[in-house]
């Protein structure tokens, strides 16, 4: 078992995995991940569906897990800001991907963004609560180690 630990500790990927990310790196990584998820979701189905929501929850939790202990504020406030920024971008670039029931074809960017937030409210609530829970868990564990 110690040989595996030695290989992981000395390999470039092992050293990279041992580092936590700063707030700026968390934002950039989450934005890049959500851009890829959004592109795949729209490319395959033409809309933002359950795949988008599930991946949003995973990105929210992963951000809280990857953050440096001094940068835990960022993943704590990131989920709503990330969802709204993705939905605004989609409403501008591919407005037909936000297709909520009762939404007029002539709806503008603001209307489509609000409809998208309402449509993905469950993913937002679950992702944000799990991210906040993860942040709280990491803070408590950090205090116990001292």
Q: Secondary-structure map with pairings?
A:
Elements: H1 2-10, H2 12-17, H3 23-45, H4 50-66, H5 73-93, H6 109-119, H7 121-145
Helix pairs in contact: 3-4, 3-5, 4-5, 4-7, 5-6, 5-7
Question: Can you put this structure into words, describing what you see?
Answer:
It is a single chain. The chain is built from 7 helices and no strands. The protein is an all-alpha fold and 146 residues long. It has one domain (20-145). Helix 3 packs antiparallel against helix 4 (50-66) and helix 4 runs antiparallel to helix 5. The longest helix is centred in the C-terminal third of the chain and has 25 residues, at 121-145. The chain is elongated, with a radius of gyration of 18 Å. The chain starts with a helix and ends with a helix.
Number of strands: 0
Anisotropy-based shape: elongated
Radius of gyration from the alpha-carbon trace, in angstroms: 18 Å
Which parts are unreliable, with pLDDT below 50 for 5 consecutive residues or more? none
CA-CA gap between termini: 27 Å
Order of helices and strands: HHHHHHH
Strand content: under 5%
Largest sheet: none
Number of helices: 7
Helix content: over 70%
* Average pLDDT figure: 89
What is the count of structural domains? Answer: 1
Strand pairing plus helix content: what structural class? mainly alpha
InterPro entries: DUF6542
Protein name: DUF6542 domain-containing protein
Keywords: Membrane, Transmembrane, Transmembrane helix
Organism: Solicola gregarius
